[in-house]
Amino acid sequence: MTTLVKTPKGLHGEVLVPGDKSISHRVIMLGALSEGETKINHFLFSDDCLSTVNAFRDLGVKIDIIDEHVIVHGVGFNGLEAPKHELQMGNSGTTTRLIMGILSGQNFSSELIGDDSLSKRPMNRVSEPLATMGAEVITTDGHLPAIVNGKQLHSTNYQMKVASAQVKSALIFAALQANEPSIIREKLPTRNHTETMLNAFGGKIVTSEDQLTITVNPQPRLKGIDLTVPGDISSAAFFIAAGLLVPNSQIRLQRVGINETRTGILDVVKRMGGNIQLENINRDGEPLADLVVTSSQLTATDISAEKIPAMIDELPIIALLCARAAGTSTISGAEELRVKETDRIAAITEEFKKLGIDITEKSDGFVINGSQDWHVESSQLNSHGDHRIGMTLAVADLLVDTHLELAGKESVSISYPDFFDDLARLI
Ligand SMILES: O=C(O)C1=C[C@@H](OP(=O)(O)O)[C@@H](O)[C@H](O)C1
Ligand SMILES: C=C(OP(=O)(O)O)C(=O)O
């Protein structure tokens, strides 16, 4: 891979990890639905989050970007305007599914379109539960393009069928516009940013002690806030792996979000014997810490369904940790990976085999026999247009002497436009 020095002698330095993608999407949405201004620091300027910014601009919301800061001039739930053309969702599943919940309760219709990858991803997981509230989301055989015909919504008491923060959040956004309180029951706890952020904006969302039942009180008057977005642990994950796997490394990852619905990777690394120290922990609002990562010898682990939501986007890079660890690791209950930007189970298996990794594809995950000694079978790697596969392969490149080519490396701009620059600075 042209930008990198082969097999570096160790990675050293600090990375200010870019803003959290999930939180960046939500702060634009909540800011738009609030009264007054929302001022955002450390917003993630990546393609996915810009899809959210552009969609809300198309809905009549003024959003200023001044230097590195974003100011959303909120219009309230009743202030969105009918878009003059289709809303372009780009590659972003989060934008699409959350906005469906918002648009379902408006008094106009909207059409949502997306790129080829997004147009293959399932949308009936959102349109069907929304229909229990009287919403009308008309998909194309369960996919985009979709038309959302805004309706007066009523409350729901809904048991979720998939463990998905996107589906949960769509239902919460719709429930805010309903006439009575709604109850949403999760299968497994998923990231809770919508709930915690809504409460910070003045909403009343109550989560049960086991995190599985969410009660949404409708018709809140939301007020804009000032927010500094924490670093994205899903982006930090690539440097966590690089720091652990490249011998003689020590890296400090600054101001990373450590919300416990997202830190599955930290638990896995600990179980595998990896050395990550948390420093400068700050628990005002979304918790943050610096992560200090030191090269470690890893041992194999098993990851099953109940652990998956807290590390769903980190599974490609966790699979790489397993590929380097001593022993046989299994990842199961991860069938959701098949409906991400690409089929991540198939893509990881195909690309890891090129690297000489002993990996077996399962319907819901992998079995991986780890080794420090891979015999590269093909140097022509492919991101499959998926940012997380691309960054995983870039970390793998640090571990082999063979010159590798990565097709589709530009896909990193979906969540981490400066990824290759930040990596190069550590070498
Ligand atoms: O709500 C969110 O911000 C996200 C939820 C997850 O998707 P699912 O809800 O489909 O699990 C995750 O994979 C995605 O990157 C971001
Ligand atoms: C799955 C992801 O995002 P989204 O669903 O928003 O496209 C991701 O970022 O890995």
Automatic annotation (TrEMBL):
<dbReference type="InterPro" id="IPR036968">
    <property type="entry name" value="Enolpyruvate_Tfrase_sf"/>
</dbReference>
<feature type="binding site">
    <location>
        <position position="313"/>
    </location>
    <ligand>
        <name>3-phosphoshikimate</name>
    </ligand>
</feature>
<dbReference type="InterPro" id="IPR001986">
    <property type="entry name" value="Enolpyruvate_Tfrase_dom"/>
</dbReference>
<comment type="pathway">
    <text>Metabolic intermediate biosynthesis; chorismate biosynthesis; chorismate from D-erythrose 4-phosphate and phosphoenolpyruvate: step 6/7.</text>
</comment>
<dbReference type="GO" id="GO:0009073">
    <property type="term" value="P:aromatic amino acid family biosynthetic process"/>
</dbReference>
<feature type="binding site">
    <location>
        <position position="26"/>
    </location>
    <ligand>
        <name>3-phosphoshikimate</name>
    </ligand>
</feature>
<feature type="binding site">
    <location>
        <position position="340"/>
    </location>
    <ligand>
        <name>3-phosphoshikimate</name>
    </ligand>
</feature>
<dbReference type="GO" id="GO:0009423">
    <property type="term" value="P:chorismate biosynthetic process"/>
</dbReference>
<feature type="binding site">
    <location>
        <position position="166"/>
    </location>
    <ligand>
        <name>phosphoenolpyruvate</name>
    </ligand>
</feature>
<keyword id="KW-0808">Transferase</keyword>
<dbReference type="InterPro" id="IPR023193">
    <property type="entry name" value="EPSP_synthase_CS"/>
</dbReference>
<dbReference type="GO" id="GO:0003866">
    <property type="term" value="F:3-phosphoshikimate 1-carboxyvinyltransferase activity"/>
</dbReference>
<comment type="function">
    <text>Catalyzes the transfer of the enolpyruvyl moiety of phosphoenolpyruvate (PEP) to the 5-hydroxyl of shikimate-3-phosphate (S3P) to produce enolpyruvyl shikimate-3-phosphate and inorganic phosphate.</text>
</comment>
<keyword id="KW-0028">Amino-acid biosynthesis</keyword>
<dbReference type="GO" id="GO:0008652">
    <property type="term" value="P:amino acid biosynthetic process"/>
</dbReference>
<comment type="similarity">
    <text>Belongs to the EPSP synthase family.</text>
</comment>
<keyword id="KW-0057">Aromatic amino acid biosynthesis</keyword>
<feature type="binding site">
    <location>
        <position position="93"/>
    </location>
    <ligand>
        <name>phosphoenolpyruvate</name>
    </ligand>
</feature>
<feature type="domain" description="Enolpyruvate transferase">
    <location>
        <begin position="6"/>
        <end position="423"/>
    </location>
</feature>
<comment type="subunit">
    <text>Monomer.</text>
</comment>
<feature type="binding site">
    <location>
        <position position="166"/>
    </location>
    <ligand>
        <name>3-phosphoshikimate</name>
    </ligand>
</feature>
<feature type="binding site">
    <location>
        <position position="344"/>
    </location>
    <ligand>
        <name>phosphoenolpyruvate</name>
    </ligand>
</feature>
<dbReference type="Pfam" id="PF00275">
    <property type="entry name" value="EPSP_synthase"/>
</dbReference>
<feature type="binding site">
    <location>
        <position position="121"/>
    </location>
    <ligand>
        <name>phosphoenolpyruvate</name>
    </ligand>
</feature>
<dbReference type="GO" id="GO:0005737">
    <property type="term" value="C:cytoplasm"/>
</dbReference>
<feature type="binding site">
    <location>
        <position position="22"/>
    </location>
    <ligand>
        <name>3-phosphoshikimate</name>
    </ligand>
</feature>
<dbReference type="InterPro" id="IPR013792">
    <property type="entry name" value="RNA3'P_cycl/enolpyr_Trfase_a/b"/>
</dbReference>
<feature type="binding site">
    <location>
        <position position="21"/>
    </location>
    <ligand>
        <name>3-phosphoshikimate</name>
    </ligand>
</feature>
<protein>
    <recommendedName>
        <fullName>3-phosphoshikimate 1-carboxyvinyltransferase</fullName>
        <ecNumber>2.5.1.19</ecNumber>
    </recommendedName>
</protein>
<feature type="binding site">
    <location>
        <position position="164"/>
    </location>
    <ligand>
        <name>3-phosphoshikimate</name>
    </ligand>
</feature>
<feature type="binding site">
    <location>
        <position position="21"/>
    </location>
    <ligand>
        <name>phosphoenolpyruvate</name>
    </ligand>
</feature>
<feature type="active site" description="Proton acceptor">
    <location>
        <position position="313"/>
    </location>
</feature>
<feature type="binding site">
    <location>
        <position position="388"/>
    </location>
    <ligand>
        <name>phosphoenolpyruvate</name>
    </ligand>
</feature>
<keyword id="KW-0963">Cytoplasm</keyword>
<dbReference type="InterPro" id="IPR006264">
    <property type="entry name" value="EPSP_synthase"/>
</dbReference>
